[in-house]
Specification:
- There is one protein chain.
- This protein is α/β, with parallel strands linked by helices and 405 residues long.
- The chain has helices spanning 48-53, 75-86, 123-140, 205-216, 266-276, 315-323, 326-329, 334-342, 374-382, 385-388, 393-401, and strands at 56-57, 64-66, 70-72, 95-96, 99-100, 111-115, 145-147, 164-169, 176-177, 189-193, 365-366, 390-391.
- The protein has 2 domains: 1-288, Collagenase (Catalytic Domain) (3-Layer(aba) Sandwich); 291-401, no CATH class.
- The strands form 4 sheets. The chain has a 5-stranded mixed beta sheet with strand order 7-6-8-10-9, covered by helices on one side. A 3-stranded antiparallel beta sheet has the order 1-2-3. A two-stranded antiparallel sheet has the order 4-5.
Length: 405
């Protein structure tokens, strides 16, 4: 979907800490002894644009990194994150629409990856550390990581022959970062900064990657739980075991008690079994339910913003989700509503629920509902920022340039 300006970016990350190294929850290790996120600010009264300026962004990928190691794929998702968590004082999400972010029973047994040849002299160390880290999780639960060596020469975020890529980076504000299972292929990376091969304290590369692979399996930072008494992130999590201060997913500097190598504890292993089953276990009869509930009635009117809709619930919804997966994986927002008109050509279907514009489209102000005016709908289809963030001067200008066409 084209836009008239580049307001969107990609994101992904996670961190670790040993001795004085940091461990984030999605797979990013910050080279700092601070337990706070790299973009921590006093968010009281802070606007989205002001807050966004404080968010670290990877120079080479444009990915936003929040809370030290949590990746956000674009500005649209960053904005939703700001509304749902920053303004409420929270910073990390590990569930999507109330569901665990995890691999299904088929995916979990074939989690393929490549290790970039760009690591050069460090590649052998990375291959060995990945094997050992993956082996620790595989020994705990019914999982299987597979290194596809044939893909190492083309180990990029665009390689669709693997689930994720392991690549080197330099000059980042973390030692390593990873991702959560729900993220798109382009964001499924384990990036290891060159600083991870230097003197980083007592945690070896294998320990760092055990933590990072925990994020790739959907596990959060343990210290977000209130029992830690420090480094709170948010309340959006589901506890699967009792609190574990020695967990591989717990920052040592956040009142963690594991100060040596980051190894899996008994509770880490129990948690992995709770999510993925015991080693060698068979999936339950019937397998995983199809995403979105396959064929069920739509959860709400497609002309109204709300929770994600199942792609199969309506022919128009199917078309929209094929063109804009965000609508069926993250949120059915105002842009998805606009696409009922722009993609399905069903403007009349939403006329009954059309809103009243809170201000004229020819003046700047708060974001507008695309359903409030035909011209507004066109502008928002071309430039979603206008209906997701602010109706700024460029949106005003687009009422002439876009609507004239």
């Amino acid at each position: 979907m084209s836009t008239l300006r580049s307001r969107h970016a990609l994101l992904l990350c996670s961190a670790l800490l040993a001795g004085f190294v940091v461990l984030p929850s999605v797979g990013c290790i910050a080279a700092s002894d601070s337990a706070e996120g790299l973009d921590d600010v006093d968010n009281s009264g802070t606007s989205f644009e002001e807050w966004k300026k404080s968010v670290y962004r990877e120079p080479d990928t444009g990915i936003y990194i929040v809370n030290g190691d949590v990746p956000i794929d674009n500005e649209r998702e960053l904005y939703d994150f700001f509304l749902n968590f920053v303004q409420q004082g929270a910073l990390v999400v590990h569930q999507v629409n109330g569901n665990d972010s995890k691999w299904n029973d088929t995916q979990k047994l074939n989690i393929t990856y490549c290790v970039s040849s760009a690591f050069g002299a460090n590649k052998t160390a990375v291959v060995n550390a990945m094997n050992a880290a993956a082996g620790a999780w595989e020994a705990a639960a019914n999982l299987n990581f597979v290194h596809k060596t044939a893909e190492d020469a083309n180990c990029t975020a665009a390689n669709a022959n693997v689930v994720f890529d392991v690549r080197p980076v330099t000059g980042q504000q973390y030692l390593a970062r990873a991702f959560f299972p729900y993220q798109a292929r382009s964001s499924r990376n384990v990036l290891i900064d060159s600083s991870s091969f230097g003197n980083i304290g007592v945690i070896p590369l294998t320990g760092i990657l055990r933590h990072e692979l925990g994020h790739t399996l959907g596990f959060r930072h343990e210290h977000t739980r209130p029992e830690a008494g420090k480094c709170f992130e948010d309340n959006s999590y589901r506890a699967v075991t009792e609190y574990d201060s020695a967990s591989v997913m717990h920052y040592p500097q956040c009142n963690g008690t594991q100060t040596g190598d980051l190894a899996l504890t008994a509770k880490d292993k129990a948690g992995a079994v709770a999510i993925y089953g015991a080693v060698g276990a068979q999936p339950p009869p019937g397998g995983e339910p199809p995403p979105g509930g396959g064929g069920a009635a739509c959860a709400h009117d497609k002309c109204a913003a709300g929770a994600v809709l199942a792609a199969a619930c309506d022919p128009c919804v199917t078309q929209i989700c094929a063109a804009d997966a965000y609508c069926c994986t993250t949120k059915w927002d105002s842009q998805c509503v606009t696409e009922v008109s722009t993609i399905c050509n069903q403007a009349a279907a939403c006329e009954a629920s059309a809103a009243v514009c809170i201000h004229a489209p020819t003046v700047t102000g708060a974001k507008l509902d695309p359903a409030c005016d035909a011209c507004v709908a066109k502008v928002c289809a071309a430039d979603s920022f206008c209906c997701n963030s602010t109706w700024d001067s460029q949106c005003v200008n687009e009422t002439a340039t876009v609507c004239a066409n």
